[in-house]
Amino acid sequence: MAEQQRRIPQENIERLDAAGVFTLTTPKRFGGADFTTRELHDIYRALGAGCGATSWVVWAAAGGNLWSFSFPQAVVTPVYESRWVGNRTFAVGGTSRRMSGTARRVDGGWMVEGKWPFATGSVHASHGYLAVYYDPADDTKVGMVLVPKDSLVTQDDWQAMGLAATGSQTVATDGELFVPDERFSTPALLASQIDELTAQGRGPRRGGLARSLVTGTGTALGMADHAMDVFLGTLGRRTIAYSPYANQAVAPITHLTVGRAHSKIRAASLVADAAVAALDECERRAVDPTDRQTLQFHTDVAYIWDACSSAIETLFRASGASAITKRQPLQLIARNCRAGSLHAAHTIDTWMENIGRALCGVEVAPSFTSVLERRS
User: Alpha carbon 123 to chain centroid distance?
Assistant: First the structure.
């Protein structure tokens, strides 16, 4: 049903909201749960084992809350204290001008215009953080504006082969939209505000975007867990056509398939455990991850998504032609995890090259990064 609707069904959103799932990373001063990196990762893994798209939406919506630390209390308070069912915020854009809008300075604020594709969580949110470039000639001049979702136009354009249930629609302005100064922020201001709030014991846990991405690997691992359960659960009911095996469970090729998939999932899980432990250690020592650690976190994330996707597709290929029917869950799990692995932050080849450059001591121009990692 979720895939057909191309969003998480409202009744599920209501149940998630009642369970407090959308407060996972809400600022503590607004009742946020303040979970550790380990706890967040395990929650996403549990959700992913039930529905990968649901876990993705919860994870993406949680990431948007980080921007709430860079805006004045009077601006953010109504967002979190209003009566709302679902995630309060979503964040989108920043990696390129094509994925973001523009802003021009006017008295008292900014005139913002543009469209932002892949706005995961926007279907269920009350407000959005939108990346905007505010200098036509300088790509380092990028910021975020906080706008009510009802001031935006939503486009029913999310037609995807995987993660279709995430409702990752395009949002846009209808012409120019005025945004007052207090609803505009930059990465530098965000960093400054987080430092100040952390010193007061009111900031977010350390790690920024890297922490968000590491916890999000729980979604990939949860889908891999689900795929393995589905495959093993149907073994005794299948044959291998054109072979002497009337029961797939006794065929050596099946044992090899399951062994390979299991080992990939286990290896990915151990890499995730190491990254989670490193981030929790940073929190314990009250230090931020180094640039080198952050690069390794990004690489670990890409490896985990690729390994989980590969393991799931190994099981899918061994499931026979019946697995391609829409009533069978394995094809959906395979499509969802492959789609997640193609996210720009999860692309295996990019991060293998990046870590390889660092290991070889090759200096090149800075990598393109998300708005959270830019320096204005």
Answer: 16
**DSSP string across 7-61:** S--HHHHHHHHHTTGGGSSS-GGGT-----HHHHHHHHHHHHTT-HHHHHHHHHH
Residue 353 has pLDDT above 50, yes or no: yes
Q: What is the Cα–Cα distance from 31 to 10, expressed in whole angstroms?
A: 23
Residue 277 has what pLDDT? 97
- Tens-place pLDDT, residues 144-186: 999 999 999 999 899 999 999 999 999 999 999 999 999 999 9
Closest C-alpha among 152, 126, 168, 154 to residue 2? 168
* Domains recognised in the chain with CATH numbers: 2-184 (2.40.110.10), 208-373 (1.20.140.10)
DSSP 21: G
Token digits of residue 93 = 């854009």
Place of tokens 């600022």: 27
Contact 346, 68 (CB under 8 A): no
Q: What is the pTM of this model?
A: 0.94
Q: Between 155 and 367, whose confidence is greater?
A: 155
**DSSP secondary structure letter of residue 367:** P
